[in-house]
Write a structure and sequence with these properties.
Elements (H helix, E strand, L loop, with lengths): L1 E8 L7 H9 L3 E9 L10 H14 L3 E4 L5 H10 L5 E4 H12 L3 H27 L16 H32 L2 E8 L5 H8 L15 H4 L13 E7 L2 E7 L9 H6 L1 H8 L3 E7 L4 H18 L4 E6 L6 H10 L8 E2 L8 H11 L4 E8 L4 H11 L1 E7 L3 E8 L1 H21 L1
Parallel strand pairs: 1-2, 1-3, 3-4, 5-7, 5-8, 8-9, 9-10
Antiparallel strand pairs: 6-7, 11-13, 12-13
Helix pairs in contact: 1-4, 4-5, 5-6, 14-15
């Protein structure tokens, strides 16, 4: 599929690097580029002369698609479609992102989120087609698609249905998170921009997975934790256990951020971000090989997103240090010190400093507490002792004729649950005495 990139900026020189990468990720071959620095034209996004030049380039290169790095309104899409050669599709960066999401979505939840985002994007266009039809200006709709009188209501009904199903999935996931937390697991979430190396880092931290392994043992990793130089490799969430004795730590990889996402798209994927918002610790992964200004901008965006609802501590992880020298790394640490005052520097690919990151995770997570419980010897006592072994670090177990004394360290939630179960045992023993 041949595509032309188009981008307009209010001032300065348009940068098309990201939109080109996105187009390539979606499977397009970029055969041309049109850029312009001026205020947006309400009818065409580009100025009329530049829009006509775009049409000429599209015809000359036999492009099938024009991809705008700007957000196009439905009427702009319609007007551009009238200028371009017949059969040339007009899409903007958000349609392109949805294409990529659709290609990568493997789980039911990810597929529903993509479908929801697509419907939210289509709704104003369906409303525009209704308006154009009433004005009798609808031959082909020139990029807006065919007109269906009932489509607008169908979209609203589908949005409602998908939101209900996503809510049920989220309730199930929240119950799973709480069960894990009650069982003594600390929950760590990986956050950051797409392509920062989160999936590679997850594989490096995972106690049950080799970093170079991708098939066989863990089928879901094929879809959700591949280590590839691609945008949006991870759409769902993948959770793995990290080896941080004596803790039981679960690390979850989440969907990557990308700049300038509209509200409707963020809203569609917000349940994925709940893994970040409800974690005990967030690792904010940054690609340190990028320019300082770009890293700074991305950190600001991430902080805005995370601090909106996140209560857990955030540790910035400067990843890919194997791609920069020591002087450049030191310079970037200084320049970013206000946003990342005490970062951990690692190379997830090479494994450099991963032990230091594990130590930092241990120090940032809630402190464990010591406990000593005296349990009456009943039929259910050994079940509780076994549960404590599974969910805590047991220092000593002393068996007497009438009781069992267990000394252990654990998360406060586990200690609270152990005390409650011990109290139930004592009550049962007293009643049967």
């Amino acid at each position: 599929m041949n595509a032309i990139i188009a981008k307009r900026v209010d001032s300065g020189t348009p940068d098309t690097t990201e939109i080109r990468d996105l187009a390539t990720a979606a499977g397009y071959t970029v055969v041309g580029e049109i850029t312009q620095s001026r205020k947006a034209d309400p009818a065409l996004q580009l100025g009329e002369g530049k829009a006509e030049e775009l049409a000429e380039v599209a015809e000359r290169t036999e492009a099938t698609t024009v991809i705008f790095d700007n957000r196009l309104g439905p009427y702009q899409t319609y007007n551009l479609g009238q200028l371009l050669p017949e059969g040339v599709e007009v899409i903007d960066r958000f349609t392109l992102i949805l294409e990529i999401f659709g290609q990568r979505a493997q789980t039911r939840k990810a597929q529903l989120q993509v479908e929801l985002a697509e419907l939210r994007y289509e709704l104003p266009r369906a409303e525009a087609k209704t308006s154009l039809a009433k004005r009798d200006e609808h031959p082909g709709f020139m990029g807006l698609g065919e007109y269906d009188e009932s489509r607008e209501q169908d979209i609203k009904d589908q949005i409602s249905r998908i939101k209900d199903e996503l809510e049920r999935i989220e309730q199930t996931e929240e119950q799973r998170r709480e069960r894990r937390r009650d069982s003594g697991f600390d929950l760590v979430a990986l956050a950051g921009y797409t392509n920062a190396g989160k999936s590679t880092l997850l594989r490096r931290l995972a106690a049950d997975l080799d970093v170079d392994e991708n098939e066989g043992l863990h089928r879901d990793l094929d879809a959700t934790a591949e280590s590839q130089d691609k945008l949006f490799t991870t759409l769902g969430t993948t959770t793995r256990r990290a080896d941080i004795e004596p803790r039981d730590v679960l690390v979850t990889d989440t969907v990557g951020f990308i700049s300038d996402l509209p509200h409707w798209l963020v809203e569609s994927f917000k349940s994925t971000l709940d893994w970040v918002y409800r974690a005990d610790l967030v690792l904010l992964v940054v690609d340190v090989s990028e320019d300082i200004d770009e890293i700074h901008e991305k950190l600001v965006t991430c902080h805005d997103t995370l601090y909106e609802r996140n209560e857990a501590p955030i540790v910035t992880v400067l990843n890919k240090i194997d791609t920069v020298d020591d002087d450049e790394l030191a310079e970037k640490r200084r320049a970013l010190s206000s946003l990342a005052p005490n970062p951990v520097t690692v190379s997830a690919r090479e494994g450099t400093n991963v032990e230091a990151l594990l130590d930092r995770i241990d120090s940032e997570l809630p402190d464990w507490e010591e406990e000593r419980l005296m349990l009456p010897m009943t039929d259910d006592t050994m079940s509780l002792v076994s549960w404590i072994h599974d969910n805590a670090h047991v220092d000593d177990v002393t068996y007497g004729d009438q009781d069992v004394i267990v000394s252990f360290e654990a998360r406060p939630a586990v200690i609270s649950q152990a005390r409650s179960r011990a109290s139930e045992l004592r009550t049962t023993a007293a009643e049967s005495a």
